[in-house]
Amino acid sequence: MNRRSESIRNKLLPAGALCLLVLVWWGLAASGVIPNYMLPSPADVFGAFIRDFPVLLSHAGVSLTEAAYGLGIGTLLAFALACAMDRFALLEKAGLPLLVITQTIPTVAIAPLLVLWMGFGMEPKITLVVITTFFPIAIGLLDGFKRADPDAVALLKSMNATRGQIFRHVKLPAALPHFFSGLRVSASYAVVGAVIAEWLGGFEGLGVYMTRVRKAYAFDKMFAVIILVVIVSLLLMKLVSIIRNAAMPWLRYRQEGTGSN
Amino acid sequence: MELLETSGISKSYDSREVIRDISVRLAEGEIVSLLGLSGSGKTTLLNIISGLVRPDAGKVFLSGTDITGRPGQVSYMLQKDLLLEHKRVMDNVTLPLVIRGMKKEEAAKQANVYFEQFGLAGTEKMYPAQLSGGMRQRAALLRTYLASHGVVLLDEPFSALDMITKGQMHRWYLEVARKIGLSTLLITHDVDEAIMLSDRIYLLTGTPGEIRHEIRVPANRDDRKDFDLKPEFLKCKQEIREILRA
Q1: End-to-end Cα spacing for chain A
Q2: Which domain holds residue A88?
Q3: Staple partner for A129: which of A24, A193, A200, A213, CB 3.0–4.6 Å?
Q4: Mean per-residue pLDDT for A57-65?
Q5: In A, which residues are within 8 Å of B134 by CB distance?
Q6: Does A150 reach chain B within 8 Å, measured CB to CB?
Q7: B85 vs A165, A254, A258: nearest CB
Q8: Taking the domains of chain B in order of start, what are their residue ranges?
Q9: Distance between CA A83 and CA B214 in Å, rounded?
Q10: Domain B4-74+150-245's class?
Q11: ipTM above 0.90, yes or no
């Protein structure tokens, strides 16, 4: 099978699985096995999505802003901490277990505390996004720094390179693929994190809107929000992939394997 | 005066002596091989000469100056080409100059002169993944040359290449070394390669590794075309094999 047909197959397979899932959903809703008020049909959800699109869009803008701030701050923090842990082994030994512990705390448990401490504004939402997005990036970077080729490090040492030069020319580029893998995961967490934080209080955002429509038992609108969150998360992940490809153009040639003897 | 010289180098790891009392010398423009079986301490010696590792005893001199334990004085090419995949070929070969503090543009200007000579013309803006195995080795050699003060240490640089490409690289290296007057200390376990490329061969044998034999290759370096088919080559090879087997 050539590369082109393999690529088409790789795209068609998940699209087919998604279509199948929607068909099953449709079948369940149409057959009445699950009452329509509990599981609205895909057509009802699509209708609610179109009707409420302007409202959804304005709430999505708020959630996205929180997610973007949180992801940005989380990324910067993760970068700084991973660099410090790579530089000082003692800090890594002391800090890594703490970092892991922070990830065992459920998001829904810490969110109310954040609201109590910081109020109903954007701050607790952004903080929650920082907490959820920070870990995959920090761990990815730390792992990437460790995977730098020791022979390449030895080569630079033989050139009398400073620690900073070795970091810049070898370690950081080696960590970039791991950084982007972490960022991709974090991007998907960011919107979800913001929505969860909004559930617990606030004035705007997809989470706030979701709470309102839940109270009104408007299940079709709830599904419309869920679908929008999925779409926004997927778009964010795609954006990270685009940035990744632009930041690492050499990967294209490695994948193509254009060199020959 | 010798360009590069070591005197009485010894090194142990965890109380196990790896090399003992190694003295080698390399004159300007000369190619000298250090031939030995696996585990004879060849790479340890090169690490010491390049300044990456300090010897327990002995000194390394470059043009009479003591450079023991000082990296950055002699350039070093390891078994892998170690081109940085994220850097274009030009940025890879100029890396040692940039590390020394030279501006990127100035380093590129200095390197540009050699691209044609090293058979790399047109590859300046390519990534290493776009190069063939032979071209990658040439780029790594150019980087090693630009980092050097006229002396390069090569640790089995052609071992990963196929037989045909290796033969081409040998011929090319002899030519380029002659043109630019490069002095080379080559580590190899390939007897044919050592004879084809070198003026002299040191045989590193025993445990710990010691140099007990030095062989002068019986042919001028300018006269190495089809040398591997000549009786002198086979006689030299036979002599080396007997010593290594003993």
Answers
A1: 25
A2: 74-245
A3: A193
A4: 94
A5: 261
A6: no
A7: A254
A8: 4-74+150-245, 83-147
A9: 49
A10: alpha beta
A11: no
